[in-house]
């Protein structure tokens, strides 16, 4: 019977084929050719209906045996190919090679500077305070001597939640909250995020500030000057020169803006004969705003301005980080580029 012979011949043929196959893809080709839906075995089986009924069982049984035999041949060959592949990989594996160190993150430069500044003030006896980023108009403006329609509000336009609730435009409302929840004498710094409607090369809609407030008896401008000078030399180095310029803020009187000698050119205005781009050759850079707490602010929180005096200051953290580390572009702080961030590890 031809069909039985044909079936039996499949086994040695496949053995030969498998002996020559050296890859999994060749193996797969053979599997399709022998066992696939249109493969050799299937083709033989398709002639089964043409046989005399009495012959069919013997052929059918044979076909099943052959199918099992073919499948076993495949499995054995596949196993030996897999084993050979693993052996090759193991031969390449060098257990004496040093491992790859896991990637370690680092603190963001904004966080680093914020912590450094808070540490300096902790040493000076200040507490670290915080307040909400979603703030009431009253704390953000009104209690800070900026009533509705006050022109100083224009400088700090922001994102309003409702008419009276907004993203805080500065950390100064923490001054108000601190004075309401504590009794003088008190000294706090308050780091945190603030929001403004600015967005250009040197402004981002969100940035970080640190607020400072000290209230007690007989606090004077000399205390403010000494404190801020010590603080700025702590951050920018003992050689740093500090100058105070008269300015205006609604919540302080008198008010000042503070400049430090430019830490890029050392105050010379030039670097290697080139004009310094950071201080624009003036030798000074503006670093913070400050002043003596306005009596109107004391009144808003129920402190007697005849009894208490105090000073306050506020500074932008990204600005300090840019000057301290010589970072030229504010946007780098928010792009999350690991090549930038990893430099502060
Ligand atoms: N809040 C001010 C701003 O964002 C900065 C500031 C100036 C804070 C003077 C102060 C201060 O506490 O005394 O522009």
If you had to describe this structure to a student in words, what would you say it looks like?
With 345 residues, the protein is α+β, with helices and mostly antiparallel strands. The protein is 41% helix and 20% strand. It is built from twelve helices and eleven strands. It has helices at residues 2-20, 24-35, 40-46, 56-92, 109-123, 137-140, 173-181, 221-236, 295-300, 317-325, 332-335, 338-341; strands at 127-128, 134-136, 165-167, 186-195, 206-216, 242-249, 252-261, 270-271, 274-275, 284-293, 309-316. The strands form three sheets. A seven-stranded mixed sheet has the order 1-4-5-11-10-7-6, with helices on both faces. α1 (2-20) runs parallel beside α4 and α2 runs antiparallel to α4 (56-92). The longest helix is centred in the first third of the chain and has 37 residues, at 56-92. It is elongated, with a radius of gyration of 40 Å. The chain starts with a helix and ends with a helix. The structure holds 3,4-dihydroxyphenylalanine (DAH). 3,4-dihydroxyphenylalanine (DAH) binds next to β10 and β11.
List the helices and strands and how they pair.
Elements lengths: L1 H19 L3 H12 L4 H7 L9 H37 L16 H15 L3 E2 L5 E3 H4 L24 E3 L5 H9 L4 E10 L10 E11 L4 H16 L5 E8 L2 E10 L8 E2 L2 E2 L8 E10 L1 H6 L8 E8 H9 L6 H4 L2 H4 L4
Parallel strand pairs: 1-4
Antiparallel strand pairs: 2-3, 4-5, 5-11, 6-7, 7-10, 8-9, 10-11
The site of 3,4-dihydroxyphenylalanine has 11 residues, from strand 10 and strand 11.
């Amino acid at each position: 019977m031809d069909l039985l012979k044909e079936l039996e011949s499949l086994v040695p043929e496949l053995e030969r084929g498998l002996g020559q196959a050296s890859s999994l893809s060749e193996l797969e080709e053979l599997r399709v050719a022998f066992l696939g839906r249109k493969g050799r075995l299937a083709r033989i089986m398709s002639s089964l209906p043409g046989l005399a009924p009495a012959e069919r069982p013997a052929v059918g049984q044979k076909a099943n045996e052959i199918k099992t035999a073919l499948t076993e041949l495949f499995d054995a060959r596949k196993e030996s190919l897999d084993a050979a592949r693993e052996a090759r990989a193991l031969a390449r594996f060098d257990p004496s090679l040093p491992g790859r160190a896991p990637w370690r993150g680092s603190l963001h430069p904004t966080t680093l500077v914020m912590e450094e500044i808070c540490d300096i003030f902790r040493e000076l006896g200040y507490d670290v305070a915080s307040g909400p980023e979603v703030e009431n108009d009253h704390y953000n403006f009104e209690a800070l001597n900026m009533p509705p329609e006050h022109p100083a509000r224009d400088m700090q336009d922001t994102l309003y939640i409702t008419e009276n609730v907004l993203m805080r435009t500065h950390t100064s409302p923490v001054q108000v909250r601190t004075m309401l929840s504590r009794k003088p004498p008190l000294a706090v710094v308050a780091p945190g995020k603030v929001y403004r409607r600015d967005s250009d090369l040197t402004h981002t809609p969100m940035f970080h500030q640190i607020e400072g407030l000290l209230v007690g008896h007989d606090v004077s401008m000399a205390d403010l000057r000494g404190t801020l000078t010590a603080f700025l030399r702590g951050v920018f180095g003992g050689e740093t020169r500090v100058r105070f310029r008269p300015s205006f803020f609604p919540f302080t009187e008198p008010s000042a803006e503070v400049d430090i000698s430019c830490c890029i050119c050392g105050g010379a205005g030039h670097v290697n004969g080139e004009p310094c781009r950071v201080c624009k050759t003036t030798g000074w850079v503006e670093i913070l705003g400050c002043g003596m707490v306005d009596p109107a602010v004391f009144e808003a929180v129920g402190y007697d301005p005849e009894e208490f005096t105090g000073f306050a200051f506020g500074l932008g953290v990204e600005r300090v980080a840019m000057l301290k580390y010589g970072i030229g572009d504010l946007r780098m702080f928010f792009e999350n580029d690991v090549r930038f961030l990893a430099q502060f590890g």
